[in-house]
Amino acid sequence: MPYVVSGRHRVFYRRMGEEGPPLIFIHGAWLDHAMWDKQQRYFSSSFRTVAYDLGCHGQSHLPAGWPCRVPQWAAELHALVEALFPDERVYVCGLSLGGMIAMYWAHHHPDRVRGLLIVDSPIDFSVPWWATPFYYALSYLLWVLLRLLPFRRLIGLFFRTLQPMLSPKQRASGGAFTQYVRQCFERMGKKRWFAVWKAAMQYRGLSRYQPPPATGLILGEHDHWFVRWKMRTFARRHQLPLTIIPKAAHMANIENPAEFNAAAATFLKQHPA
Predict the structure, then answer these.
(1) What is the DSSP string of the chain?
(2) Are the beta carbons of 90 and 112 closer than 8 angstroms?
(3) Whole-angstrom Cα distance, residue 148 to residue 125?
(4) What is the pLDDT of residues 112-138, one digit of tens each?
């Protein structure tokens, strides 16, 4: 299996495509590289695509005590870029947590960025100053209560309470999509699941962040209200294009791959190598 060494652990990746500029896909929290199957197949004729497993996820090997944090995940991404595409600029597409990681990496390595595509991402978990005490109190309460539940019951509760983050079609049918997400969760185990959740919820973003000129945003029309609010606010603040994917929610690339691939292809054509 192909791996890249990052610090003290190995990062699993899957590569498709032999020609064209590099295009790297970063999955969301608790999932793995397989969520980008259809995108890798679609873009591999024109791009050298890579999808990989973040630390704490999938087939990436971790040493004991490795911290699940956005800066560490960004370091993984940089190790991957340096190993596979030395001295090249790359396109990076990140969904949800993957979008946060992509932005953090781009901020610290602007000379390596060819284009940045942020998908269904809350950008960060900062909130207005007046809501901060309530946010911290609620987060801590949820943390304490959820850790008391058996892991399988926790997964079931997660699917019931976060139904708005699935499109109407996925809520009605379940099927392979829901099974894939559930399998990813169960494979992680309770300890890693909570470590990833804590890392995402504690991420407050970058002060004075300025996105690269070649940045695009993609949002499922039925995504969670918090994600919709954060992405629309970010788009207005930085005057960035925001593409809405119909009949999709928090995983637009899986829920409506045809529309998503068309939107991503348009972004890539607008920002050629």
Answers:
(1) --EEEETTEEEEEEEE-SSSSEEEEE--TT--GGGGHHHHHHHTTTSEEEEEPPTTSTT-B--TT----HHHHHHHHHHHHHHHSTT--EEEEEETHHHHHHHHHHHH-GGGEEEEEEES--------GGGHHHHHHHHHHHHHHHHTS-HHHHHHHHHHHTGGGS-HHHHHH-HHHHHHHHHHHHHH-HHHHHHHHHHHHT----TT----SSEEEEEETTS-HHHHHHHHHHHHHHT--EEEETT--S-HHHHSHHHHHHHHHHHHHHS--
(2) yes
(3) 24
(4) 999 999 999 999 988 787 878 887 788
Total domains, the chain:
1
Q: How many CB atoms lie within 10 A of CB 84?
A: 18
244-253 pLDDT per residue, tens: 999 898 899 9
Whichever domain contains 178, its CATH number is 3.40.50.1820
Among 222, 202, 233, which Cα is nearest to 135's? 202
Determine the structural domain holding residue 184 and report its residue range.
Answer: 3-270
pLDDT of residue 175: 60
> Could you tell me the pLDDT band of residue 140, with boundaries at 50, 70 and 90?
confident
> Is this prediction's pTM over 0.85?
yes
